[in-house]
Every structure is written in C-alpha cells, then in structure tokens.
C-alpha cells in the first residue's frame, strides 16, 4: 500500500503504529442530537483522504462523504433523521422527502419511483387485494442488523469493511432481505457496494431497485460538468424545456428551480460496465459511479438546482422512469421466486483530474 507517499506492507505499518487507526479505519458512533438522535453510524476514513459515514439505522446508506476536506455527498436540510420518526403514508406518500439526504439513498426493495397502488394477489390474502407504495419504497427507513465491521488484511492489503442485513417484511406481504457489504481500501479513494436482495418468503414477490446517488456543494458548483457515454436521452421532464438549464454544464443555485429528470441510455464498455461522472475543473476533482448495465439497465439523471437544496443525482435503476404500473403492464417488472436473489456490484470513487 502507498500511504502518505511511501510504500508499506503489513509489517512495516505495524512498526510505525500500534493500530491501523493511525492511518485510517472504521469507527462506530451513535448520533446524539436532534432528529438524528439514536442513529448508529460507521465512520470510514482512508489514508488517501476519503471519509464517509455509513448509516446503519438507515439501511446502511451513505450519508456525508468528503475527500481531503472537500464535501461531495449531498447534505440537505432534513439531516439523517431517525427512522422512528418516519411515517410512510404521510403526505400522500411523499414523506420520504423528509429524510432525503446523503451520498446514497436506496430505493426498493419491491417498489421504486412514484406512488402506486398495485395488485397484491400474489400474497393470497383476500383482505388486501392491492398494496399501496409510497415514493421510492420502504427500504431507506429500515434499520439494518449489523453483521460486523472493521479492518481486514488480505496479504499486505488492508480493506475497511462493514456488512449488515435489512429485512423488509410483512405478514401476508413481502419478505425481502438485503445484505449489503461496503468496502474501501485503506490507501484508496473508492467505495465498493455489493448488495444481494433475496426473497426469503414463500410467495412470488415483485422487486425493484434504485440508487439515488446525490452530489452536493462544494463539488457541485456553477460550471461543474456531467460526463457520461450517452447513447440517447430517452425521456426528459417538462421542466427541461421550461427552465432552459443545461443538464451537461450546471448553473449555480436558482430560486424556485423545479427538478429536471432525464432517462439516458448509457453505453457500457466491453465488460458491461457503465461509468458516469461529475467533473469540477476548478477543484480538479471528479466523482464517478461505475455499475453493471445488466444489473441496472436504466439510468436517470436528477437535477435539482434550487437554492437551499442544491444537488445533482445519478440513479442506476432496474426499471425505466415510468415506474411500477408501466413495468407491470409492459411485463418488465422483476418477480423473485421464493429463495431467488439478485446481486448488485457498484463502485463510487473520487478522482483527481
């Protein structure tokens, strides 16, 4: 490993410091104030300057993220609200927006995108013929059962890691389990997410999945650029033409800006991987997401340049922007059979450019 400009193996690092924490590591803390009170958090820190928080009680999503003191994970006014305060059906299903903050907010496990009332005959419960789903589903406000965390040596390479399980279950309803593993090299600037979603129940169950990956100031700033291998833009919200803001070179914050959303068809490389990035030339930094196009066949760009809530989002998704009712009608909605699982492999990295 290259730490602070010198090469170190496990032994030479041990000679310099009695604990890996001198270079980096994972620390468990509990947030203790305001609406965040009681949220278990794992603080990751690498010797290369990458620091990010894993919110154990928020589905192990990623909250604040910084590189050498420069923030790139979006931090909204909601903070990282304790999931005990969440009311799923409040505000006609838009209550998800009251806890919407951080670098990664997961949507799913059986529903993503806008609210929908859908057929529930697969659960064979005559008193509930349909299931009503709020914006982006339930998973982001479910605490994980933490399996473990810490530093793991693989030869002379040290990997920081955490793993946990999130259960989304109901009697006469779905029983889906998400196992999430997060890794970062001690000398690295990359976050690796490996997610496995399994139908742990005995009924055929719908499955939709989406990452809301949110970049905020100061990495997002006037003149920052969106860079991706766009083969075709399949859909854009009406606000795109009404506001005239470019989705390739970003403006600064605007009063009253209405979100602009795009669905892009992105070209994968020869290995089926897709990369999309946000470049800040002034800071000399790029944030990049890399994912598997077979796992996430759709990609959305969310642009919210409103003052006070200034953010841009990258959203790899299992389904198109039209949402669950359209996917059911088109026959493209995934159903997991009992015991069946799907895996997702995604990397988030910060690069000096």
Automatic annotation (TrEMBL):
Bilayer-spanning residue ranges: none
InterPro entries: DUF4432 (IPR027839), GH-type_carb-bd (IPR014718)
Top-level taxonomic group: Bacteria
GO MF term set: carbohydrate binding
Pfam families: DUF4432 (PF14486)
Name of the protein this chain belongs to: DUF4432 domain-containing protein
Organism annotation: Acrocarpospora phusangensis
């Amino acid at each position: 490993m290259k730490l602070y400009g010198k090469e170190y193996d496990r032994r030479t690092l041990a000679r310099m410091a009695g604990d890996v924490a001198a270079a980096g590591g994972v620390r468990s803390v509990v947030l203790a104030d305001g609406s965040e009170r009681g949220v278990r958090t794992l603080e990751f820190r690498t010797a290369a300057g990458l620091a990010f928080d894993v919110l154990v009680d928020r589905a192990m999503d990623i909250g604040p993220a910084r590189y050498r003191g420069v923030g790139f994970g979006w931090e909204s006014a909601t903070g990282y609200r304790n999931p005990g305060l969440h009311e799923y059906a409040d505000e006609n299903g838009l209550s998800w927006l009251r806890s919407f903050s951080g670098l990664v907010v997961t949507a799913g496990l059986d529903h993503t995108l806008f609210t929908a009332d859908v057929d529930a005959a697969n659960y064979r419960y005559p008193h509930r013929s349909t299931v009503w789903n709020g914006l982006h589903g339930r998973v982001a406000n479910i605490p994980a059962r933490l399996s473990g965390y810490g530093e793991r040596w693989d030869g002379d390479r040290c990997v920081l890691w955490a793993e946990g399980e999130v259960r989304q279950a109901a009697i006469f309803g779905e029983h889906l389990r998400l196992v999430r593993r997060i890794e970062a090299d001690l000398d690295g600037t990359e976050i690796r997410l490996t997610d496995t979603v399994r139908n742990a129940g005995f009924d055929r169950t719908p499955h939709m999945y989406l990452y809301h990956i949110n970049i905020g100031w100061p990495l997002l700033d006037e003149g920052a650029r969106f860079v991706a291998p766009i083969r075709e833009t399949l859909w854009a919200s009406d606000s795109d033409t009404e506001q005239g803001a470019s989705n390739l070179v970003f403006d600064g914050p605007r009063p009253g800006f209405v979100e602009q959303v795009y669905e892009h068809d992105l070209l994968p490389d020869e290995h089926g991987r897709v990369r999309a990035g946000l470049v800040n030339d002034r800071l000399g930094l790029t944030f990049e997401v890399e994912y598997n196009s077979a796992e996430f066949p759709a990609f959305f760009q969310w642009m919210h340049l409103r003052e006070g809530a200034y953010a841009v989002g990258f959203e790899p998704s299992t389904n198109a922007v039209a949402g669950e009712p359209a996917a059911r009608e088109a026959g493209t909605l995934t159903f997991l059979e009992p015991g069946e699982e799907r895996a997702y492999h995604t990397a988030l990295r910060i690069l000096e450019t």
